[in-house]
Batch of 2 targets.
Target 1
Amino acid sequence: MEKIKMITPLVEMDGDEMTRILWKMIKDELILPFVDLKTEYYDLGLPNRDKTNDQVTVDSANATKRLGVAVKCATITPNVQRMSEYNLHEMWKSPNGTIRAMLDGTVFRTPITIPSIHPAVKFWKKPITIARHAYGDVYRDVEIQTTEPGVAKLVFEGVSGKREEMVIHEFKGPGVIEGMHNTDESIRSFAHSCFKYALDVKQTLWFATKDTISKKYDGRFKAIFEEVFQEYKDRFEAAGIEYFYTLIDDAVARVMRSEGGFIWACKNYDGDVMSDMVSTAFGSLAMMTSVLVSPDGKYEYEAAHGTVTRHYYKYLKGEETSTNPMATIFAWSGAFRKRGEMDNLPDLVNYANQLEAACFDTLNEGLTSKDLVNLMEGITPKSLTSLEFLRAIRERLAKRLGA
Ligand code: NAP
Ligand code: MG
């Protein structure tokens, strides 16, 4: 078989530990035999981030802005223990945080679902994607605890000299006060990313806040979404999808009774909480994909899970591992599909589709990594090592591609 051609390179962001091992295996088994792979390679592994004073992370984000599509391996976010383990010069910031800030992007998380793994919510038939606004609200708050009576006020001093002052509460005794904010600019970026992504995957978009109670704050979110939606309305209609706004408590009730198959955009705190609930209900962190979408339509695909440290230590001792590659493979397939669409390469799009189909073939035959064995029902699963699993997928992919 002639290898599938690419035009524009993908931005390839390599990472750490077990996922770095899987990264190479996936390339060797599932990509390089079939695709004439073009990437611009950035090594975001912790040793190289340390060596380059984290410049490599910034460079990779800039490359994503320039080329439009990136695929990222999981990376270590250093903590005190990692400082000594890797002999670091500094406790470098989370690469995901840096990239997200540079692209001003929103993260969309979608579970990979298969018939033999039943969601905890019996109505759910299709994946639910959570989009979480990643700026402001309680995550950038200021708080005061008072031990005495007194008055708390909200004060705004405009550059024009305009001054607004409101009493929050007159305390008769001890209590707590919290101030938080968001910006029109950040909310608008969030809205653009959500509408773009909904069009991309042709799924209806839900957004919910508590604007009946928080008339100005949450009301601003609702108004900006409504305003930005006007730019997308015609394209939504043409794609046969909807934008749907409701109150957050109504949204929760509807989500529980829904079949799935839509995107649920959440404010920062709601997204933090709901994404953990939704992903747990769908089964496994190892089956959760993630894509960062910028308001101007740049994409960075990755797995939602981390570097699977415990498996890596086993691997270093020479023991067999059975690590689930699914979310990392789907990061690659997502990136290839997007690249293929942008460069008008139907063969590359088809390769992405067949790669995912080969994964489903394998799982539906009960061939899997260890983590899914106890979740599968109505099928007798067989647990494979990391490499055996990838080879089983490769066999099915080759058959599908006629290679
Ligand atoms: P983790 O790597 O996601 O792993 C937590 C546990 O979940 C694993 O020990 C494993 O359970 C299970 N698991 C996760 N992915 C799996 C897979 N593909 N196959 C099989 N089992 C899987 O989270 P962590 O241990 O909290 O974090 C490890 C490192 O990853 C940290 O340094 C953190 O900074 C980093 N991290 C990076 C990202 C990212 O780059 N996006 C995200 C989160 C964390 P068992 O051990 O029970 O098998
Ligand atoms: Mg959380």
Note: The pocket of magnesium ion (ligand 2) is lined by residues 272, 276 (CB under 6 Å).
Target 2
Amino acid sequence: MSSSLLGRIRRSTAFRLTAIYALLYIVSSLLLFVIAYVLLAGVVRSQDQKLLTEKLNEYSYIERTKGLPALLDFIRRDTEEYEESEYFVRILDPSGGERLTVSPPGWETLPQAKLEPRSLEAAQWQLLEQPGPGGGVFEVTSRKLGSGTFLIVGGDAHQREALLSEFKRIFLFITATVILLGVVVGAIQADRSLAPIRDLIATVNSIGGGSMTARVPTRGTGDELDELASLFNSMLERISTLIQGMRDALDNVAHDLRTPLTRAKAVVETALQSNLSQQGLREALMDIAEENERIRTTLNTLMDISEAETGTMRLSIERVDMAVLVEEGVEIYDYLAQEQGIILICDAAPGLFALADAGRVRQLLANLLDNALKYSKPGGQVQVSARMDDGRVRVTVHDQGEGIPPEDIPRIFERLYRGDKSRSHRGLGLGLALVKAVLTAHGGDITVSSTVGQGSEFVFSLPRA
Ligand code: ADP
């Protein structure tokens, strides 16, 4: 494994998490083991020490009350039945010389207890190991008697200590296995739980490499990391829409500006080459101004559509009475309708409150009315009505004009799309695209139904206030 890989593993969050938890786990497992061992050893030892304590107390009492010779006598008699006894007794002079030693048969080599006279006023415990044949592990208790002699009572602790050390070995083995298992499982778990973060990093990297289509895989677990992945994906979706919107707008601008710019260029070139009169020059300038205005309107509308589609259009949403807005629109277009010989009817009872940007609603109403009049024949009728329906305010613009061919219907809301027959009419092919984008930005929608030769009906809705 290369050192850079090792370094990366050491820096990784999975490694750190595993290391911290493994350390906590090891410390608590060991602590548990030590506590269990100490408690168990304490219980087993106290059982063994009970008999030795009893003997030590009994012999001390006899020495205190009856004197040392009586004690020696008593011990000899007491230990006569050593077939069954499980302890040895030893009495030493103040100088360390042996006064008496009695032990069960087979206990040849007895351990030498370390005696410190000053600290021997109370009983002392020692666990002594006596190597060699006949030796073993002895639990020894000793005490200084009144006569200055030392009383030592000891029992065989070999079996008990062997059991405890076996227990220690098994316990250590189990603890080591549990720790190893804990560390391995912990490492796998930490690695698995951090997989979403790695996916996120991989996605960010591929986006950094220019691929806007990359998305973080979601696992459907519903946890925080899954939520983060979903949020990140929706953020990417939004950014993609914005970028796509900008690209489309740019494409459309490039496409749509070329025609008026070429026309303006042609007018300028013709004017420069020919010897035009004052009037001719004036007309050329007017043509150029007209193309200029067309470019300006196209640009503004395209920008508006782009902003509305990408959700960056600033809307001052307020409670607006749609009936009032519809009446206003009808009033504005009434003169044009009369000029074209078209009857314009308004049917909207006041009090139809919607949540909308009044300026934008006026604009979309104007686009729909403009189309309705533009594609109507003299003598026709255009009716605008508004009503409350299913929690929304619905506005219908109905005309008896030329209608829209069924194959055009899915495309009329696209940017710059114009029906074949519409080319004889003025227009940019942006009106309906703007209407739809603005409505979408409001949380509204628009539908159309039309029959060629009979007329069209556009119905849009806005959220009720
Ligand atoms: P335009 O500037 O061409 O009117 P729009 O986006 O407003 O652009 O409309 C797109 C196309 O939809 C029009 O070219 C026309 O073919 C069709 N259209 C829109 N409104 C009507 C209508 N009321 N009657 C018939 N055709 C319509």
Note: The chain has ten helices and twelve strands.
